[in-house]
């Protein structure tokens, strides 16, 4: 045993020393889209698309979590966040944001919220002209920027 008493060392988490990212209104809110839709089928892959600043680092947030649950740095304007095997715990409210390239402590405001509902089986669709179709983002320019078929209709 040592004859010298040691004082307890007070530790401070590293986050107390690092500045938190500040939102900057000059960076527009990103857009968030579910793919294939806002319902995730238990055990299947579900993808969330986030479209924002070019060359930015995108962050996927989940309500109730203080830290981003996923991050990506794609080359273009869109990040694709994937949940490989949807489970009941994946139900919830999601949003995304981005940090412009080279601006580690600046962030866009978060996107609008996306509510993910998880179901056990895919519901049967009624026979219609849309049967077998795939969800695409509403705006045709977004679909084309993702390399997806255009949703524009042409006059015959």
Automatic annotation (TrEMBL):
Region labeled Disordered — which residues?
A: 122-156
* UniProt-listed SUPFAM superfamilies: Immunoglobulin (SSF48726)
Give residue spans, biased composition: Polar residues: 147-156
Please tell me the species this chain comes from. Answer: Dromaius novaehollandiae
Cell wall biogenesis/degradation found in the keyword field: no
Q: Enumerate the UniProt keywords alphabetically.
A: Disulfide bond, Immunoglobulin domain, Signal
Name by which UniProt lists this protein:
Ig-like domain-containing protein
Q: Which GO terms describe its biological process?
A: immune response-regulating signaling pathway
Disulfide bond keyword on record = yes
